[in-house]
Amino acid sequence: MPRPSPHPSRHAAIVPPYLLARIAASDDPRFDVAADAARRSLVRDWSMLEWRITGEPPTFVIHDHAARDERPAAAPGTGPRPDRRISDAENDDVLPGRLVRREGQPDTGDRAVDEAYDGLGDTFEMFARVFARDSIDDAGMPLEATVHFGDHYDNAFWDGERMVFGDGDGEIFRSFTSSLSVVGHELAHGVTERTARLRYQGQSGALNEHVSDVFGALVEQYSMGQDAESATWLIGEGVFTDAVEGRAIRSMIEPGTAYDDDVLGRDPQPAHFDRYIDTDEDNGGVHLNSGIPNRAFALAAVELGGFAWEHAGRVWYDVLTSGRLRPTSDFRAFASEIVRAANDRYGATSREARAIAAGWAEVGLGVPPAP
Ligand SMILES: [Zn+2]
């Protein structure tokens, strides 16, 4: 009898299996390395998926709990401060790898190490300053990441304890630390795991993905001081090489338009609940159907203008931490909790509540007014 994993979003990876399968099937000689890397990445992702189902970690994962216990005492009166630990897998398949940079240590000169360190810092800072959240668990949990995982590994994932980043194959994917929205997305999986615990399957799984995209985008916008109108609303901008006809892995505001490429095909994300995709693959289409709530969020944020983390982001965070979502909450339950939270925070006739309700209506998930 397999034990259920204590980590509902364990191995929530940024690149969905259907995209890797397209690359793996390519016989274009320009992408020999990429096709081989995608095949091996799929196999790697499968063993991680089994871990999530059975609770048994694959042999290459050795969690070093000893290293986690020595934490520097927090200085009094300084507010939350990050405690980052970046390890280097040195292109091997072993986790966590060799610890190469700890909090307060200078740049190493290794781009992936330093990008992960900076990206975790930006993510920590947004959660701390905007939402007064002290790390993933709101209790100062160290932020751990492993970079250079695997050989040309084409993915990044949250394994329940740390963020893991591959270097990419170099032909289609660059290093996954190069996009701040990817770093923020992975860390947000940890936040969801410790708050709403949305089950990583079907609609609740697509909501889990959606929440990670929301906070991934917000971290990027926050770090750039960017308002909702000038934001790209892209997730994973910069992880594709120039050989790819595409801007990013996903577009929150225009799902289905992030790429259209000979090898990758066309971005399959639906933008409306009428086109919800029923599938057994990808945990029931978690990376596909997340486009629907993503668009609702982005539309509301753009309609409100200004900084998205100050209004729409605030309401989404309220719901994530409200205790009112169930692990199996579906799109309609989530939308109605969001509308309720907007009404509670701003008033039912406020611009905020109206813009947020309109965003859901636009994607086919309108919430009837409360009696
Ligand atoms: Zn994810």
UniProtKB/TrEMBL annotation:
Residues 196-364 form the Peptidase M4 C-terminal domain. Residues 62-111 are annotated as: Disordered. Pfam families: Peptidase_M4, Peptidase_M4_C. InterPro entries: Metalloprotease_M4 (IPR052759), Peptidase_M4 (IPR023612), Peptidase_M4/M1_CTD_sf (IPR027268), Peptidase_M4_C_domain (IPR001570), Peptidase_M4_domain (IPR013856). GO terms for molecular function: metal ion binding; metalloendopeptidase activity. GO terms for cellular component: extracellular region. This is Neutral metalloproteinase.
